[in-house]
Amino acid sequence: MRIDVLGAVRALRDDGSAVDLGGPRHREVLARLVAAEGRMVTTETLVDDLWADPPARAVGALRTFVAALRRALEPDRPPRSPPRVIITEGPGYALRLPREDVDVHRFQDALARARRNPDAVTDLGTALAAWRGPAYADVPGSPWAQRERTRLEELRLEGVELRARILLDSGEGADLVAELGAHVAEHPWREPAWGLLARALHRAGRQADALATLRRARTMLVDQLGLDPGADLQRLEMDILTGSASLEGARTAWTGPGARFGPRTTVDLARTLALAGGDALVHSRRDRLAAIQAAERTGDLSLTARIIGAYDVPAIWSRADDPEQSRAVVVAAERTLTALGPDGPADLSARLLATIAVESRSADLSGIELRRAQQAALQAEALARDLADPALLVFALNGVFLQSFTRPGLAAVRDRIGAEILDLATVHELPNFAVLARLVRLQAASALGDLDAATSHAEAAEQLAAITEAPLVSVLTGWFRARATAARSTEPGGPTAATAAAHYRAAENALRTAGMPGLHRGLFPLALLGLRLLHDRPAPTDPHLDWGPYRPWARPLVLLAQDRAEEARTALAAVPEPPRDHMQEAMWCLTARAAVRLGERGIAAHAEAALRDACAEHAGAASGMLTLGPVARYLAEAKACAGAG
User: Fold this and answer.
1) With 50 as the cut, is the pLDDT of residue 468 above it?
2) Fewest Cβ atoms closer than 10 Å to its Cβ: which of 112, 224, 380, 422?
3) Per-residue three-class SS string for 422-454
4) How many CA atoms lie within 13 A of 580 on its CB side?
5) How many other β-carbons are positioned within 10 Å of the β-carbon of residue 217?
6) What separation, in Å, do the N-terminal and C-terminal C-alpha atoms of the chain show?
7) Are the C-beta atoms of residues 1 and 32 closer than 8 Å to each other?
8) How confident is the model at residue 275 (pLDDT cuts 50, 70, 90)?
9) What does the alpha-carbon distance between residue 132 and residue 107 come to, in Å, rounded to a whole number?
10) Element (H, E) at 88
11) What is the pTM of this model?
């Protein structure tokens, strides 16, 4: 018996004939058990994964699917004898097949072997050739399958590049040109792939084409991403130009994700990389998830809990850079917490709860998820205080901070959280969390319009960052200084609006390569809009501006600036309530301004009610990065509009 999921889900008998697995739900149950890699999946989890809104008899239907799968996979099993392929285990089911009988497991094992030993490259090539399409291709809409597809596709791309690197390092690879050319065309953002293609072209005697490939890579990186090629590509170009002997390739060890590292070492490395920003930050998230998955595969709950909770990297923004990875971490933490049970070690439970709170960024959550994350934050804080563990407490308070955006007007609350983190981090020598505390307090002071206090926190954060080697701090404080310039541009004798716009643009250039897309997307257009509102100017209408997640709230004002009032009215009617995040006051103020301009009294009244508690704050300034001006201004306009008539 063989099961394949790298493509459409199927099962094959030993003679190669296909097993009739039944309908889509039957195949999804089997696929979900494959994804668990031999671990038990509870009935409750299977029901939740199969149905977004489970029917009343969902458990009964699931049992029917399992029974049908057992008959299909073990047609010759004697009556009343226990199943051997899909077994009942505890409160759920598990798939019991040797790893070599499941294509996805063969692939992952071949990749792991090739990472450790280049001699395993042939097996890796065979495993890559077994892919028939996207993993779990006929389970398109299920969130669990989407997460697995994303994870496995990243591993597949890594496998393609690892195989090419090993072959090139061993003196082969001239025949890889077509394969790597297609790979680069499909995935042009993968910088190492360009280097591999150039090496393959050089190996095939096509030096001019190899150099042209590197020039194309540089053009793409600079024009599309604003990035210069990395040191590896620059060194490769020089080696090709000079005919360096190193291009002939002595066999080298692969140092890709997870190579020779267990989960403990990998997560330690990921924590270090996370503080460096840029590509290192992106790699750290990926490596962290790989470490968690490796720990889960050991079946050691205590190890898994420690690995999940060890990534106590301070987090300042309420929108995730990679929501799918964050959700995967949250799911793993919740699964491990459940398995540990209420009597599990308190320190591990606290770290898992804090991880859930930190990774559940409020801008990305539904109402139920938000309440669950807020509860996790409070539980983590309570456990950490009982344990009297300062390092654990600052991590838990980071989660409390990220879950403190329940409504507009809570800047003072966040300042108190930041002050406690700062006290703990200073006394107990936790410099990374001291940086976090300064940034939290900068944001709070910015929201309250206290630019002197915010500037003091910015300077202190920069001093700490020089010690801790945290380059992202200067990116954030650069945005704060642009925000302060924008505010002062409304004062007599202050800088011009053009100067403020130039400061925002410089801050945007620094942020573009910082590895924080959750923060970056839409921020610059929103800053320009805020600057225009400060000066009573219409919204910017440049069609090339990427408004990112803020588009629904900005669009009515953009349409008004284009004299498209009826379209603006329609857009305003469709505007949802803002996510509970750093920008909620700003989004409410944009709604209020559009409602006032269009005379929509009901919407104006709704915005006015939402903003009352934030009357002493500045819109957008809770980010510490931009401002739309005092909330009181928008509040007064909305109140007047709502009461007109």
Assistant:
1) yes
2) 224
3) HHHHHHCCCHHHHHHHHHHHHHHHHHCCCHHHH
4) 22
5) 23
6) 76
7) no
8) low
9) 13
10) strand 86-89
11) 0.62
